[in-house]
Amino acid sequence: MNELEIIKELTFGTVNIYSENELISAIKSGKKLKVKLGADPTAPDLHLGHTVVLSKLKQFCDLGHEVLFLIGDFTAQIGDPTGRDKTRQPLTLDAIQHNLQSYFNQVGRIIDPTKITVVYNSHWLGKLTNADIVSLLAKVTLARITERDDFQKRISKNEPIGMHELLYPIFQAYDSVELRADVELGGTDQTFNVLMGRFLQEQFGQKGQIAITMPLLIGLDGVHKMSKSLGNYVGLNESASQAFGKLMSISDDLMWHYFAVLLNKNDQHIAQMQEEVKSGAVHPMNLKKDMAQAIVTRFWSADEAATARNQFEALFQNKDYSQATEIELPVGFANSVWIVDLLKSLGAIQTSSDAKRLIESGSVHVDEMIVANFKDTVVWRSGTIVKVGKHRIYKIK
């Protein structure tokens, strides 16, 4: 690619670049850039929302730049206050280590792990003395830290803010100082943190990093950003068929957002598809199946995506329950059981709150009978069909 093509690729799909002119100049200089992406291992699983910024990181990697994948094993013990209306519970070192391996396995599905440099911020943050920390804090004012929306909202509601939370954006910024990063990537919710890195680098006499923010993927509910805690996610560790079914559950309106953010379709292409749907030339169901297949192909494989589509069409269009996901329950599992325990054993939910939300919305059926009460006990047998939501069907062995 020539310079213009490279610039177009790197800027496409971004929300803000601080600043675009600096990025253009850096690309034209031919300099090998140090591109940083930080991740705190606060949970063992990644979801499609994480792939948005990882995909942009891959573009820099493929262009030969030095990609620094920073594991926030030190900052994870504090907990990022971004988007939180209360203090996070700090993670233990054991929990952090447990989550790390899962992170590497999933990131490796998007970026060749041999082409990235993995760094841990405990290697420098853990060595700071009290004098170092005081010197670091002297470079940032309290007014600057409490500018961020999360803290402003909590202050206005008289919600407590832990002193350790005020340190989080400063420590994340210091990572950029230590690494001498040229570019840092993040979602739009990380804007304050990545700009703090740019600011702090300048305080240390370095050139401020270029900050690039990417859009947040809206979750399956069509309202909130994709999040495991909200249950509106598609996990990278889920099977291709589960992912396909979940993607088919989104609204027709949300489909355009997924085409743009996950499949990089430009406005012109999306407008053309919308016109084809409006004119009746294309059915939105078929277009959504194409979308789901393309996403599963990208983050799983082409073979798994084709199989998932065939299975979906057999189940939901032809009512062929022989194609349902077969689950063998544990030996000794009671035939009469609380519906929540059954759903957990099937892998249909993570938490009881997930089950409550689904049941109260009328989205759980056992052998075609709706489960109306969160406290219900149900009876199952070999061959029982359990439907969860619009597009997840399980057959008990």
Q: What would you note in describing this structure?
A:
The protein is α/β, with parallel strands linked by helices and 397 residues long. The protein folds into 3 domains: 3-214, 3-Layer(aba) Sandwich (Rossmann fold); 240-320, no CATH class; 326-396, RNA-binding S4 domain (Structural Genomics Hypothetical 15.5 Kd Protein In mrcA-pckA Intergenic Region, Chain A, Roll), CATH 3.10.290.10. 46% of the residues lie in helices and 13% in strands. It has 17 helices and 13 strands. The chain has a 6-stranded mixed sheet, with helices on both faces. Strands 7-13-12-9-10 form a 5-stranded mixed sheet. The protein has a two-stranded antiparallel sheet with strand order 8-11.
Tag the structure with descriptive keywords.
single chain, 397 residues, alpha/beta, Rossmann fold, 3 domains, five-stranded mixed beta sheet, 17 helices
Overall average residue pLDDT: 89
Give the neighbour order of strands across the main sheet: 1-6-5-2-3-4
Strand content: 5-15%
Number of helices: 17
Helix content: 40-55%
CATH architecture of the largest domain: 3-Layer(aba) Sandwich
What is the CATH topology classification name of the largest domain? Answer: Rossmann fold
CATH-level-4 superfamily name of the largest domain: HUPs
Major beta sheet summary: 6 strands, mixed
State the separation between the terminal residues, measured CA to CA. 53 Å
**What's the helix-strand series?**
HEHEHEHEHHHHHEHEHHHHHEEHHEEEEE
Classified by CATH, the class of the largest domain is Alpha Beta
* Structural domain count: 3
**Class based on secondary structure composition and strand pairing:** alpha/beta
Low-pLDDT ranges: none
From the alpha carbons, calculate the radius of gyration and give it in angstroms. 23 Å
Q: Write down the overall geometry.
A: globular
Q: Find the count of extended strands (DSSP E, 2+ residues).
A: 13
